[in-house]
Amino acid sequence: MFLPRPLTVVPGRGELVLDHRTTLGAPASLAGVLAMLRAALRPATGLPLREADPATITLALDGTLGAEAYRLEVTPESVTVTGGAPAGVFHGCQALLQLLPPAIHRRAPVAGLRWSLPAIQVYDQPRFTWRGLMLDVARHFLPKHEVLRIIDLMALHRLNTLHLHLTDDQGWRVEIRRYPRLTEVGSWRRESQVGASGGRPDGRPHGGFYTQDDIREIVAYAAERFVTVVPEIETPGHVQAALAAYPSLGVTGEPLEVWTRWGVNRNVLNAEESTVAFFTGVLDEIMDLFPSRYIGVGGDECPQDQWLADPRSRRRMAELGVTDLRAWFVGRLGAHLTAAGRRPFGWDELLEGDPVPGAVIASWRGTAGAVTAARRGHDVVSCPDDMVYLDYRQSELPTEPIPVSIPLTLRDVYAFDPIPPSLTADEARHILGGQANLWTEHADSPRTVDYLLFPRLCAVAETLWSPPGGDYADFDRRLTRHRERLTAFGVEHRHPDGPHPWQQRPGIPGRPATREQRAAHIARLVAAFQNP
Q: Would the pTM count as exceeding 0.90?
């Protein structure tokens, strides 16, 4: 019936039928949530849904509930959705929508349906405060309207954090007015690699970026749906798009183009004070655009060889008294964010060098980063690649499009728990929650994004919201109905039997791996902070 799985459900007797007499009501403090509910109900039902007091459907607040907790009560006469704060009421409204036929998500009147709600009592609250999705818009750009659609789908699943990966070697996607060449030059590339290992160039320019007005719209749209947008500006590696725009930021200073390949790039930022000032200036504009408490600074997959081979970089390390320019650079940006009242957010490579005070660690290389970070007192967002990297292939079927790494089936993803079992209760308090990550090297269209995200993101949403120990068979049963909702919403999700013919990419090489190969690779990567 529900997705994510609620804490308490008590079925009642009878039902409430929505018709032309149905009215809505809420206090002024919930006017925005009421407007959202009306906007969700009206298109498919065609009902006027006027406001009245008393009302058929009433929204209310109860300070004894948690901010995101809700209580939903349906009788044959009325509906009451109560939350500890507007966010809780909004989540309760999503549960209410799931009691209606899936066609409620159609955007035009649907004839011949009986819009009825079963009598029921529901109490629910989330397990974690960070329930997220990382969306990579740097490798392949997603137009603004598609980002807004993803936010709607996140809200439907009670996810509350959109981590936007805005910059990388292959593109810079956010307007920075003091440095216009970042988007004039850095927002497009002349072609793209198609496929993974041995992939060929497609010869087709690709690009796009969000203006500052676009970003403000995205942030406000998300806030109305109780989703926080966390921006990420990659440093000091994964920066070739910035180097193409401003070559003086690089170690060599040589002209570069926006990178057209995938993988780890050796070109990194130099360690000059002018380059630090450049990126603190970028972050000042980012902080003006994004009210999020957390600001991403990257820190991952940053080769050191270019610094070590460069005499000026070696002298700079000696001047600074450091052996790791990556940690030093991210630390400088972290200090700038902290001074502005924000918290730096970066990948688990931040654990390899000098600590970045107050940094929140995104643990992606298995669970080792989460364990190490929590034991060192860092807050953690769990996103282990072997559980929630949704660009990974979904089965062993030869028809999976551009197969990457290990298979992550729906059952595999449903088994995700952000808290590693080796942590003590005190250490586990540092786990803020988790997120799914979608890297888009091989997701070059919204249709492919849908295929990779759904229904696996449904499983992530349930594991982050609901109590631990879910029953996969029960989830799979409820998902059958939920797939109808996704279809009504317009989501081109993966079929249980595998990809449809038009979702396949025959003849394009991938990068498949076994779990043993992946485990050995990750063990080598995390050795730096596990055995300092």
A: yes
